Amino acid sequence: MSDIVLVHGGWCTGWTWQEVSARLADHGHRVTAIEQLPSGGHDPAALGDLAADAEYLRDVIAEAPGDVVLVGHSYGGMAVTELADHPRVRHSVYVTAFWPGKGESLMEIRSEHEREWVIYREDGVLHIIDDIETAHYMMAADLDGRRFADFYARRVLQSAASFTTPSTAPERAHPVTYVICDQDRSIRPDNQERMAAQADHVRHVSAAHMALLSAPGDVADAIHQAATA
Q1: pLDDT tens sequence across 197-207
Q2: 131 vs 60, 134, 152, CA distance in Å?
Q3: Does the global pTM surpass 0.90?
């Protein structure tokens, strides 16, 4: 049995991990899905940055009964990277996630998009474009329209500061698995391959960016393999 901490991506909350969490629990793991990082939410004035997210994760790990497998999806990889040298993290898993180098921000390593779907507001907030068709195409083309509409309705705001704060990227002290999603249009597969080149283990899932929803079994299997390695 492993203690697994699941970190959601930008504009998301912990519910996106529900199906993956259930499968990991069936494998016998203790699973904690972060409900809401400080960088996301509904109140623009209350949103934190990458440093706030990392500190929040440190508090969660401190309360875990054992060493943890730390899993990040998309933006969640930025927060996971901040804990690369944490003594209680025994394995990190990036699920089509950003893996920055020291001093790199998400904005510096993000993919160029076929269609722009991230909107910057003057109040320092990022939000997903109001054009649901474009959002669907870029984020989760492998989800049917009804399921994507449910995801789209639950989206939250994301602080621009979380995307522009440089990573401290401490030298890692544990193995890493990178899960490449081969149909992703948000983080292109070639960009994922570049980041995954430094991983100890690489897995491939035939899914788009929101693989947690469209291919939860494959994602859970990859995390399970990392947890039992």
Answers
A1: 999 999 999 99
A2: 35, 6, 10
A3: yes
